[in-house]
Structure formats: structure tokens, C-alpha cells
Amino acid sequence: METIWIPFVVAAVIAFAATPFVIRLAPKIGAIDIPKDDRRVHKDPMPLIGGVAMYLAIVVGMFVFLPKTKDFMSIFVGATIILISGLKDDIEGTTPKEKLFYQLLAAGIVIWGGVQVDFITNPFTDGNPILYLSWIGIPLTLFWIVGITNTLNLIDGLDGLAGGVALISALSFTFVALKLEMNEIAILAALVSGACLGFLPFNFNPAKIFMGDTGALFLGFMLAIISIEGVMKSVATIAMLVPIIILGVPIFDTTFAIFRRLLSGQSIMAADKSHLHHRLLERGFSQKKTVLILYGISGVFGLFAVLVSKANSSQAVYLSAVMFVIAIIFAKKLGLFSSKARKEDLDR
Prior knowledge:
By secondary structure, the protein is mainly alpha-helical. The protein has a domain of 234 residues. The chain is built from 13 helices and four strands. A two-stranded antiparallel ribbon has the order 1-2. A hairpin with an 8-residue loop joins strand 3 and strand 4. It is globular. The N and C termini lie far apart (43 Å).
């Protein structure tokens, strides 16, 4: 545990110390979020690019605590590309195609470095045989990295929400990696969680800075990498499901958003006010309570994933399926499949 807590604390201290400098830097380079539509909960201009502070904390920690291997360098380069794309978007804006290009480039680099889904396990066959994916692992890895990179960005709608969910998810990955004796990935996950913790005092409601695409895309990318290296390369029966459970809040919210928009005839890229946090606000919860509720849900997912992470039985898969069904029922009850939203959803 000492191996984990030192990187965690170092990343937290660096992020906490760097964020005030980023707050002062943001207006000078035009990285300000000015409310332009009624989807935004905040009413005043807010500094962006908080992700820069977390990037510095994580990268410094990587160079101090991790070996300089090929996969390490590919993760560093890929993460830097994602950060640059987020900075560009926060300062001057980018098109969806341009974002996708940067994300595919970053994903391609880490795949070249050896970060790839190589195999899956079959929980319903005696002996739990391993199915090697060969070249199919490359598009699967690209899809996973690009998908997870964007899911965290889509829930970044309330003060402290994305940062807190990323913190809980990264901590969950830390303990899973420790259980699976993947110490280097545990350190990387601890760095991510520590950086989020150091940033949250400035981002929790009332926020002094937003992480912006700079932070949300960067954290999503790092969580995608950690999930591949720290869980999907395990031979545990439930290895493929553990990352989905840990990242349950952003994954389910994004999935429901895609179905909601398809059912209503909208583009899946269209923005709306029907995300999970919007629905909770609609039901009368304050920003803080909404964020804390989602922290709690994310924590439950993470705890469950840690408990079953080494399971080698189909029962763990069945339990996970039950959890997914409960999540779908909960989503339906909140109306996440419907694009209908009251006018006063965010006027609080």
C-alpha cells in the first residue's frame, strides 16, 4: 500500500498547487467558458483548462514512479496529444471530426506501444478458455479508447461531477490492479486519482475553474488506458466486465443518450438536457446533492467491481447482469430514454 499512497499524495499536492496558476493563466489565453445556452448550469464566465494541472501532476508522477518503457512513453505521448486537442477546443474550438482524428492518433500510438486488448475469456465454458483476438484486438482497442475518452466528457455538466467520478473510478482501478498484482498500473491509477483529488477543491460547487475538454478528455483517455492494462489483460472471468462496471456512470449515461437521440430522430452528436444529472436536477435536487448522489452510485459500482475482480465463475457474470438490469430500470424511471425535459430543468 505504501507503493500506492506516495504517488497518490504527490499527484494530489502537485495538482492542488498548480491549479491556482492555471486559474490565472486561463483568461490570458482566452480559455474562458461564457454561458451561451440554457444547458449550462453556471451563469458567470468561468476559467477552463483545469486539466492542465492534473496533466502536470500525473505526468510528473509517471516520470518519477514508473519505468521508462515503450508502453510508458506511448501513454505519455498519447496523453499529451489528447491534452493538446482539449486545449485547442477550450481556447478556439474544434470540429467533431478534428477531435476524432486526435483521439484515433493518440489511440494508435498507445497500441503501437503495446496497449491493446489481446484476448477475452469465456465464463460459460469449463476451464475458462482464453480466446485470443489477433488483429481484431486493434479495432476493439480503438473503439474502447475513443469511447471512454468521450464518455467522461459527456457527464462533465456540473461542478465537480466528472472529476469526482474519475477519482472514484481511478481508485477502484487502483485496488483492482493491486488485487491482480499489477503494481505499475496501480501506481498509474493512483496518480490519476490523486490528481483528481488535488483539483476537486477548486472544481467542486461553487467552482473556481472547470476542467474543460482539456481535463475531461485527458482523464477519460487515462482511464481507458488503465482499464486495458490493469484489468482487460487479466485472465479473470469477469475481466471484460470490470471496467464497464467501474465506469458505469459515464458509460450508462452515454449509452442512454445515444439511444434517446436515435429514438427521437436526433443526431447522436446533438446536445440535450436529458443526461442523468439533468434528470436529478429536474427532480428538485441541488447541484451538490446531485453530484453526491452520482458519487455514491459510482462508489457502489467501484466497490462491486473490486469485490468480483478476481472471480473465475459465471456467478460473477450473472451478478453483474443483475446490476446492469437494475441500472436500466433506474434509468427508465428517471426518463433517460426520453428527450422530453421541463423548461425549468436547469433554472436553479
